[in-house]
Design brief:
Blueprint: E1 15-20, H1 24-39, E2 43-51, H2 59-87, E3 93-99, H3 101-111, E4 115-122, H4 131-137, E5 147-151, H5 156-162
Parallel strand pairs: 1-2, 1-4, 2-3, 4-5
């Protein structure tokens, strides 16, 4: 069970969260979440989760690998944030965590009680809609807030018309 959302209380604002995973479809989710945030005077949280388990080396090598992964994550999220600033005109919050994507999404939702909607985008690739969307559809992952799933075929203009 999730803690009570605070986004409607005085001094708070509803936040939309998009997960940055360096896939083409995540751009759709970021654009939609950003537009919804701007149009509702809310906030936008961009989350990047560095997969766990890739750093099981000797301590010195592990620290270098972890630092490189963090640097890459910061670069990817910075590009997404810059695009939001330029195309939508809002300043997103950036969160980078390490671990399981599903677990870290749930932890962030619990930590930031203003996050009210998770926005994901499905892939049209033959491999399937993407791991997060597939986990929701298969019910192996449940999130304690509403989840909006966008088709990746929507253009920015079509998204703007929806928001």
């Amino acid at each position: 069970m999730v803690s009570k959302r605070l986004s409607r209380l005085e001094g708070h604002r509803r936040k939309f969260m998009a997960v940055i995973d360096n896939t083409p479809e995540c751009e759709r989710a970021v654009h939609y979440a950003g537009r919804r945030a701007k149009n509702s005077t809310g906030g936008l949280v961009l989350l990047f989760v560095i997969p766990e388990g890739d750093f099981q080396q000797w301590l010195g090598v592990e620290e270098i690998m972890r630092a490189e992964a963090r640097e890459e994550a910061e670069s990817i999220v910075a590009k997404a944030a810059q695009k939001v600033r330029e195309s939508i005109g809002i300043e997103p919050e950036i969160v980078i965590r390490e671990g399981s994507a599903t677990e870290e999404i749930n932890r962030l939702i619990e930590d930031d009680r203003d996050i009210a909607i998770l926005v994901l985008a499905a892939s049209s690739a033959k491999e399937g809609p993407g791991p997060l969307v597939a986990s929701i559809a298969g019910r192996s992952a449940t999130f304690p807030i509403p989840v909006t799933v966008l088709p990746d075929t929507l253009t920015d203009e079509e998204i703007d018309a929806l928001c």
